[in-house]
Write a structure and sequence with these properties.
alpha/beta; three-stranded parallel sheet; 37% helix
């Protein structure tokens, strides 16, 4: 199977994972290992990756030598805040350009503020960032983000942390069918079957955090998500049978039967 390619780099895993909401860095690392993920996203405003020299750093448990660190702007509500946050992250990560942009519009539902997201994306792309962008499942705005120069577009499946799964598969298909960059579902996955459905629709990958971190057994759920992603991708490539309502089609051969 073809690998996932983002900003010119190929990855074996199509599962991207977050690092928040775990009980400690040890559990974080164990879940990441079980997931098989190679891209790991970090909320720069919430997790220490070197900005606080006196505290433990996530990078000790999840080193950049072993994973692609994807700094994100969780907690930012304006384009200016998001841009400042990613400039800091680039300094902390020795010029690393890959980043995840998210500009939120409402603290209660964490839905993206799309005008501010588009504004921030334009600035960051001009400054040489390789922008993966969290956004609404709006096919028009997703195409706008691609045309700005984002290296991956990441529409939500449902609200961040909701676990509601894919609430609008039709919009996702419109986005996928019209895209020339990877489309990665970001937010709303609750269990392995949600991840499988996203991949069966043709998504290039899935990013998740809460679904793993808030499971009763995060490490086991991470393993389940890995398998769900792989099964969904294989099913997409295989091409499912057509749905045929009211048209019986025996699964066993009908020739050579007694009396025929």
């Amino acid at each position: 199977m073809h690998q996932l390619t983002i900003a010119g780099k190929a990855y074996r895993s199509r599962l991207l994972v977050g690092t928040g909401k775990y009980k400690d860095f040890a559990e974080t690392r164990a879940a990441i290992d079980a997931s098989g993920a190679e891209i790991v996203t970090v909320a720069v405003r919430r997790v220490n990756i070197g900005q606080d020299a006196g505290q433990p750093s996530l990078l000790d448990a999840v080193p950049p030598s072993q994973f692609t660190i994807l700094p994100n702007t969780a907690g930012c509500y304006t384009a200016d805040d998001a841009v400042r946050t990613l400039r800091l992250a680039r300094e902390l990560l020795d010029g690393h350009p890959l980043c995840k942009l998210e500009v939120l519009g409402d603290p209660t539902n964490l839905f993206p503020n799309m005008p501010e997201t588009l504004k921030a994306a334009e600035t960051l792309v001009k400054e040489g960032f390789e922008v993966m962008v969290y956004c609404a499942d709006d096919p028009i705005q997703c195409k706008m983000l691609e045309e700005i120069g984002c290296v991956a577009v990441m529409p939500l499946a449902s609200l961040i942390g909701s676990g509601m799964g894919i609430v609008n598969p039709w919009n996702l298909r419109l986005i996928i069918d019209n895209a020339k960059v990877p489309i990665i579902v970001d937010a709303g996955v609750g269990t392995a079957s949600d991840a499988t459905i996203a991949m069966e629709l043709g998504c290039d990958g899935v990013l998740m955090n809460t679904a793993i971190a808030h499971a009763k057994d995060p490490v086991l759920m991470a393993s389940a998500m890995k398998k769900g992603i792989e099964a969904g991708r294989e099913a997409f490539l295989a091409g499912r049978m057509a749905r045929k309502y009211y048209s019986a089609d025996p699964s066993s051969p009908t020739t050579g039967l007694i009396g025929s």
